[in-house]
Amino acid sequence: MTYAFDPLVPRPIDRQTDVPVTGSPDAELLDEAKIFAGPSDPAERPAWRRLLHEWRDDARNRHDYTGAAYDRPAAAWAMRCYSVAQVWLWDELLYSFEDRRFTPERFIADARERFGGLDAVVLWHAYPIIGLDERNQWDFYRDVPGLSRLVEALHDAGLHVFVDYNPWDVGTRRGEDDLTELAALVADLDADGVFLDTLKKAEPEFVARLERARPGIVLEGESKLPVERIEDHSCSWAQFFADSAVPGVLRAHWYERRHMQHHVRRWHRDHTEELHSAWLNGVGVMVWEVVFGVWVGWSRRDAATVRRMVTVQRAVGDLLLGGEWTPLAELTDEAEAAGVYASRWELGGLTLWTVVNRGEEDYPGPVVRASDGGRLIDLFGDGVVPGRGIGALLHIAPGAAEPAWLPELLEALRGMPHDPDARFPHRLAIRRTPEPSTGAAEPGAVVVPAGPYVLTVRYRARETGMYQGAPYVDEWKPLPPRLHDARTLQRDGELAAPVAVAASEVTNAQFAEFLEATGYRPAEPHRFLAHWADGRPSAPDEPVTFVDLDDARAYCAWRGGRLPTEDEWQLAGETGLLRRGEPAVWNWTESEHSDGRTRFVMLKGGCDYRAEGADWYVEGGRRDPAYSVKLLLPGLGLARSATVGFRCAWDLSTVEEVR
């Protein structure tokens, strides 16, 4: 297939903006920038910095900038929020499926060890499973037992909490208007901020309503925030920002130093460029290792860089916020030739250089020119600027007092060496091995004979990927036809023995018989019992729904069977003998996988429900047997859906066992 764009090359909208170094600033050009490109000729840099200052003064005048949003005491934390993690609510580091509880202590310990701790988390909740049924984005927060306690535990650990807002959710169950729902959610959860998914900015009334609900609320827009809205958005998400070869300046942060940006390129395996940009600009990063169910873990080198970077940033925050900032500060000729660059920050007799090495080889120095006295300290103590790494130099002027934070910082950094290991930390998704069946197949079951098979699987390209690996390795923003287009893949395997798959789904009446006979009750009954409030649903012949994998497995075991794998389901379905109940529902399969961070299962069959109005929903509609959907598994009962049922399967010793 020929694409109209190269996904490995940043789009024009992602690229840096060249700043003409003669004449007056081009307001229209610079207002639209993501990053002001750094000039490659050192002789042009004084004029370049002068134009950036002129543009900022002019832009603030044109937009009547006040900075009032940054003076709110309750929002002051955001300007020092140097590391934020976007985390799927059911990430197996944050939630234990075995213990059926959230494990913030485990998540926090991992972040502390590898990334130097976090300042905030985004609890991502609905996408990419929303659209499976009529539940809306608010339901995927409000139906979670103990979510308030999770937020409280994160707060107790010193983290701030963002919730996610999906403005595209227009085709699910309707409740109050979005502003009312979001304001109530923020207040109820005591959330500190809102991530604006797919939105660069919120409208003024939106901002005002949230501020009334939770004074000091912090809004973080996705991608490029318009200049005029830096006024009321404390943060923005620097996603897919391409820097120049000579590192440039982030436009929004230059405009307002207190505006925090978080760099991220979610599909990249080398985060050097965004880490360098964040370090030189005095801003933060987003740590995102599980992108909507896909493992994109950070290398030891990049994690170590984050750890070193945020440890310094937290200590020197006053310098980064209030010091005189000189981007692309003058360095030695040797440093320039080696691809070493720095920003200089000066305040009260202290001068800090945040240094990056774009080259592959360690640079031994010198970095800065000799000063007239005072004390120059290599904060990291490396003696070099590591290849593809960062450095930090602090100069204390003669007569200036040593900062109170310095001894503790130096002690902390002694245990944080640069790690050159840039290998990608692969994970494999392992499929759960089904327990063998123990009983006889039901009459009329569809027999799949033993032997090798080759299947064509049809699916929709989503950010969840399918079985192994990331769907967009090192790509910039995925766009159609790379995103949401129809795909096929081939699966092969072998059945060691015949398998019988039930011709029909389990019905409400059959499941009620199981409940009565066994007294079975699920571990998280809230959504289950609502469906069975009167003892049994009113439609006994309809496929049973509001059952999760454990419920389905328990029923199948009672019948002496088990769930079919997706391949067994498809092989049986391709005979044309499987029947669909009314209404049609997706079928659970025994193709449950985990890579240690994400659990997912393959659904088969399709359903009559279809959420309309956005490409981000799980696809609905009846599907042929070859079609599969990868569903990320939520915990605490949220996997129970009005559109998902199941059928049983049995292991056979011979094909003649079914009559």
Automatic annotation (TrEMBL):
Residues 489-593 form the Sulfatase-modifying factor enzyme-like domain. SUPFAM superfamilies: C-type lectin-like (SSF56436). Gene3D superfamilies: paralog of FGE (formylglycine-generating enzyme). Signal peptide: none annotated. GO terms for molecular function: formylglycine-generating oxidase activity. InterPro entries: CTDL_fold, Sulfatase_Mod_Factor_Kinase, SUMF_dom, SUMF_sf. It comes from the Bacteria. This is Sulfatase-modifying factor enzyme 1.
